[in-house]
Design a protein that fits this description.
Number of helices: 7
Helix content: over 70%
Radius of gyration: 18 Å
Shape: globular
Number of domains: 2
Order of helices and strands: HHHHHHH
Strand content: under 5%
C-alpha cells in the first residue's frame, strides 16, 4: 500500500476527530479564539521537531519567492481554518465537513489555473460528483 495513501487516511481520521471536538469547543468559544489557541499550541508542539530535524535551514535558504509562497500558504490556511471553525459553530461539524469535502474540486481548478496542470476526465467527473453529492446531502438532510 502507498505510504501517501496511509498518511491521507490518517489525516481524514484525525480531521474527523478534530471537527467533532471543535463542535463541542465552539459552543463556548469564538472561532477566532479557537484559531488563536490552535495556532499557538501547534507552533509550540512543532517547534522542537523543526529545530531538531534541521528542517528550518532549507526553508530560510529557499529564496524569497518560496518564502513568500509559504507565508501566503500560512495566511490562507489561517483564513480557511477560521472559515471552517465558523461553519462548524453555525452548522455543526457534520454539515460543515460535508460541504468542505468539495475542496478537491477547487484544488483541481486552482492547479489548472496557476500551474496549467490538466486533470484527466475521471478526476473532473469525480470532483463534480463529490461537489454535487455535498449539495444534495445538505439540501435534503
Amino acid at each position: 500500500m502507498n505510504t501517501g495513501f496511509i498518511y491521507a487516511i490518517g489525516a481524514a481520521i484525525m480531521w474527523g476527530l478534530v471537527y467533532t471536538l471543535d463542535q463541542k469547543i465552539l459552543k463556548n468559544a469564538s472561532p477566532i479564539a479557537l484559531l488563536f489557541f490552535d495556532s499557538i499550541l501547534t507552533a509550540l508542539l512543532m517547534l522542537p521537531f523543526l529545530f531538531f530535524s534541521h528542517s528550518i535551514k532549507p526553508i530560510l535558504q529557499s529564496g524569497k519567492i518560496n518564502l513568500a509562497l509559504m507565508i501566503l500558504s500560512v495566511i490562507l490556511a489561517g483564513i480557511a481554518s477560521f472559515c471552517i471553525f465558523s461553519a462548524i459553530k453555525i452548522m455543526g461539524s457534520a454539515d460543515a465537513s460535508i460541504i468542505e469535502i468539495a475542496y478537491p474540486f477547487f484544488v483541481v481548478l486552482f492547479t489548472y489555473l496557476f500551474f496549467k496542470s490538466t486533470p484527466n476526465i475521471y478526476f473532473l467527473l469525480g470532483g463534480l460528483l463529490v461537489f454535487a453529492g455535498s449539495i444534495i446531502i445538505i439540501k435534503f438532510s
